[in-house]
Every structure is written in structure tokens, then in C-alpha cells.
TrEMBL record:
Protein name as it appears in the record: Lipoprotein
The entry's keywords: Plasmid
Amino acid sequence: MRTLFAMSVLLATCACQQKVSVPTSQDLIGNRQLLAVWQTKCDTGDYSQLGATEKTEMCSSTQDATTSVAQIESGKKESDFFKASTLRK
């Protein structure tokens, strides 16, 4: 009887867990607030304590988006610097 009860509790617990919808890199690039939330979750929050495989599944799009945003911002700075340099002459 105890085994049956323990199994039913375990089954109920597993059935109640919902699959998390992970945003794509494009979604995160387009929404900087969402990117900031997911960076926090992956660095110090909900997903920071996961194993390597699970963390990769949950946070790979966040890492890709962070890299892309940094490259976009760097490109804008370089473009602005080049534009300012050529206008001075």
C-alpha cells in the first residue's frame, strides 16, 4: 500500500510539471527586456544550477542572442566612428 501511494505521488508530481517554452534567438534579439530576463535565469537564476545538457538546452539561444546583440552594437559603434571620422574631413 505504501509503495502504491508513493508511486501515485511521484506520478502526480511528474505530471504537474510543465515544459518551459524557450524563446528563439531572434525573439531575444528583438526583445531586449526578454533577453535580460533570460540572461538572469541562465546566469544566476532558475537554470544556473542545471546540469550541462539541460543548461545547454535551456540557455543556448540566450547565449547566441547575447553574442549577436554585442556584435550588432559593436558594428553600430564602428559605423558611427567611421561616419564621424569621414565627416570631419
